Amino acid sequence: MNRTPQPLPDVPPGVLLQLRADDWSYGRGLTPGTSVAVTVAGVRDLLYRSDEWVWVLGHRPECAYPHVDRHPPCMEVRVRIAALHRQLAAS
């Protein structure tokens, strides 16, 4: 039996997410248990993703990405979907 994950909120590129320590679980080069800020480049909506977590690709706010053509995302962080809903509702 195939299951369909819950729909994700629309997270437009350029949105700044201010993630609390419990809003995310993994990110290469990030310190667990700390707050993280990420300017969203995209959300990876995988077919078999969890209903609780999703991968967010983006840039650190201090990154000069708008001035560099085709600059790949600086970071990828596993974020709670509930945190995305909360952040977008607050903006």
Q: What this model shows, in words?
A:
This protein is mainly beta and 91 residues long. It has one domain. It has 1 helix and 5 strands, in the order E-E-E-E-E-H. Strands 1-3-4-5-2 form a 5-stranded antiparallel beta sheet. A hairpin with an 8-residue loop joins strand 3 and strand 4. It is globular and about 40 Å long. The relative contact order is 0.29.
Give a concise summary.
With 91 residues, the chain is mostly beta strands.
List keywords for this structure.
5 strands, 11% helix, 91 residues, mainly beta
Give the SSE layout.
Layout: E1 16-19, E2 24-27, E3 36-44, E4 53-59, E5 75-80, H1 81-90
Antiparallel strand pairs: 1-3, 2-5, 3-4, 4-5
Shape: globular
Instruction: Write out the strand line-up for the largest beta sheet, numbering strands in chain order.
Output: 1-3-4-5-2
- Class by helix and strand content? mainly beta
Rg, Å, rounded: 13 Å
Residue share in β-strands: 25-35%
Name the helix and strand elements from N-terminus to C-terminus, one letter apiece: EEEEEH
Please report the number of helical segments: 1
Distance between the termini: 38 Å
Please provide the count of β strands: 5
Q: Please summarize the sheet with the most strands.
A: 5 strands, antiparallel
**Chain-averaged pLDDT:** 85
Low-confidence stretches: none
